[in-house]
Specification:
Layout: H1 6-42
Length: about 50
């Protein structure tokens, strides 16, 4: 069995942690967008159609 250099293990673990952090950030941004859209729609006059 070939030994993996500690530098590569460090890099792999750092990349894995960063990927996990980015997934959590993506979920937070999606939730913020959903809440912002909900707030926008709550404040919209029913007679006015929202863009999109």
């Amino acid at each position: 069995m070939q030994t993996i250099a500690k530098e590569y293990l460090f890099l792999f673990n750092t990349l894995t942690d960063a990927e996990d952090t980015l997934r959590k950030l993506e979920a937070q941004l999606i939730e913020a967008q959903r809440q912002a859209e909900e707030l926008f729609l709550e404040g919209t006059d029913p007679g006015i159609q929202s863009p999109g």
